[in-house]
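Fold it.
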Amino acid sequence: MYKVDVLNGCSCFVKNGYRVSQDFASKEEAETETTRMIDAMNKNFCKRHAFSFTERFGNYKIYMKPRA
């Protein structure tokens, strides 16, 4: 089992109906979903935050930071 977790979702994250945690059967599925979410959030959200991720043992953590 592989996980995608969002560590600190902003109000845009909540308004767009994303889930805080998701489980996947394969690492490839988890990586694909993480990449899709990061791209969508960085393109479509309010631009006050930037989103990126870390991966460890097939588990992905998405986090946000203020834009400079």
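Residues 27-44 form the longest helix (18 residues).
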